[in-house]
Amino acid sequence: MNTSASTSFNHAGRGRSAARSGAFRKSHIASCVLSVLAGFSAHAAETATNDQPLEAMHTTDSDSTTDAVANVTVTARKREEFVQDVPLPVTVLSGADLARDGAATLSDFAEKAPNLEVSATNSRQTSVSLRGLGKNSANEAIQSSVGIIVDGVVLTQAGMSWGNYVDLDQVEVLRGPQGTLEGKNTTLGAVVITTKLPSFKPEYTFTGSYGSENTYDIKASATGALVDDLLAYRFSFYDTKGDGPIKNIYTPLGGTWEGPDRWGTRLQLLLVQSADLTARLIANYDSSNEFGNLSPYILDPTTFANGAPRTITYSSRLARSYFGGYVPLIGPVTSQYVDLNSAKALPVNQTGVSLEVNKNLGDYTLTSITAYRFNDFNFRNDFDYTHFNIEQMSGTLGNNRQYTQELRLASPLGKAFDYQVGLFADLAQSHTLSRTLYGQDAGAFFATNAQYAALSKAQLQTSLNGVYNTTEVDPTSRSTAAFAQGNWHITDRATLTLGVRDTDETVSTIYDKISTGGAGVTGGALAIRTTQQGDLYGHINAGSVTNNSVSWLVNPAYQLTRDLSLYASASHGTKSGAVQLDTNGNSANVKPENSLDYELGFKSSWLNHALFFNANLYETRISDYQSNATVVSASSSTGYTSLLTNVGGVELRGLEVDSAWYISSDLHVNLGASFNDPLYSSYNNATCPVELNVSTPCNFTGKQVANASRQTINLGLDYKRSINDNAVGHVYLNDVFRSRANLSTTLSDYTWQGSYSVVNGGIGIVSHDGKLELDLVGKNIFNQRYAINLAQYSNSAGVAEFYGDPRWVGLTAKGKF
Predict the structure, then answer these.
(1) 735 in helix, strand or coil?
(2) Which residues pair with 545 in a beta bridge?
(3) What is residue 95's three-state secondary structure?
(4) Nearest to 413 by CA among 167, 81, 73
(5) For 282-323, how does the pLDDT look when each residue is reduced to its tens digit (9 = 90+)?
(6) Rounded CA gap, 268 and 605, in Å?
């Protein structure tokens, strides 16, 4: 729960002065501007109306320093409401707190919200999970179970959130199926990111940081009026760059890895033609060119679980005489050094434009949000993790684009029944080309022991040298939906909220798997090549599938006292299936995912609104959960491949706590915690971990779900004290704790991440007017090593780990004018 600032999206209130009589000139300018804005895709300003009965219930004589939470407003239900009055499990992170902590990415936000986890090793490998579910990436055919919404625009691919966010207003984390109020339907929840509006009052801000690994970070923004009381702008910019913590020991290439290298800009225009018509145009561009995507090997077992020796391993391949006694880097050393000869930076470029228009029709408000987003990427990895020419290039290039249109009509508040209805349509198109280019040393590495013994050095080199394998995958999704949600105010204290959504979605995918290059070979050399090529099934239109689904919500709430409210909800959500082929080119379509969710909770305030304590019990039952899984593949050279599959059933049960305590005007503490029991309720066809050395399925029913921790705790402390008449000193600490979780869908014994805590904090001095600030900031202060991703070993790879950011310490200066 964020308690540091109140937020408001009542643009009509800001524009009352623009409605003065005799403003013909302004009206004419507004008409011209609207004509220009209508030519763009875009995103709109949230027009909200204060709910007077609820506001009156929070009228209090308490000191303002202890009434902060009651003044935090959210738009989780597409209206401006006090966070304590929203009968839903929602966590709110304020822009002020996020800016203070230097939190600018999805991963940063996850360190502050219970039961929220983000894996973002690069734009394509970005995924968001809630309550332990939803971690899926690097598969454009699947849509997220957890939605990401940025200024009202739904992102169909989580990777479109890649980049830094500047001028944040707040972040809301919503739990449970979504879709009866807006945008795209999701089965587990949504992360709603809202940035600050343009202001008619001029303001200029600047933040500069410099710290560990020669890292600098610059953020700047400017806002003000272009035409008084009519047209305002906001321009934001960020640039961050630095060395990485991992050094490349192969000197011809050299360099460091996992350092930041990204920048972006954002331009907003806010038109307030009158109290009844507003429009907000947003255009953004983000770019990164980072050396990353490393998952080096930390272990390469020599035996299976039963003690039987492994006849061929990653290490034994490199121990062959061909490689001259080379010893690969394996183990903790990989957090400091790698040996790469062909990896390159991973460029990502993203653009977006959106237009949101709000029009009051009497007491009703009509909202239109039109948006376009595009991103492209080109990943050029060196996944053999040696300086030999084994895989000269591996990785995926591609792009994602989406078009969305939303129309929403909101009825007036203050009556026995209020409602919102809407329509939503989107088109999402992706193109990916996964490729591997083999070098002259590939044959000696990928040969079996028998092939290696039988072939000459020349035969080994020609077997794969210059061979270029590619797999093109082009998924498309088209969706249309109608949704409605209404609130029946049975009494002044009792409200029943009902919602429904009907969605039609068509998904299709085209594949093309081919191999080119390489000299002509026969015999054992050809056998090596054929194994690496797999089944070259060529161009296949895998067809299309149309799904119709109905989502619904039943949400009763009761205000027991002014400071205690109770709520419950039952909801159902559905996510479309996917069209895909397996490694042999056979149909392997994925069924739709269905979620049935129950919530029971309360929201309360104590000690004259100095202490806020909210708790929520939940049970979520998911059938045909869509998960990227490691599956056995006879045509794969490693014996395994990654494929999207349906897990028969998953059940989540738990308790979430969200609280804030204003101990004094100088000291406040935030605590968020979750106690989760994530189990496979039905999963009898799971892939067994490789160490069991079996090809038959395993039964994971009753086991802890992969990637899901049982406990997460987020604790924050903020203390400030006046130093003199001109300055205030402050100290803040944030700690995130996660209990152990298995980070592989095979539940291998080698892919457990143990419990860990990451502590961030800072100490600084701020001028009394808040315009100048200097901080000493630390992230991961105790240098905790922890894995974001872990993958089991294969016959040509070790246990792979992508680990979280190490300690960073730096100075940050902020100015506001």
Answers:
(1) strand
(2) 507
(3) helix
(4) 81
(5) 999 999 999 988 899 999 999 999 999 999 999 999 999 999
(6) 37
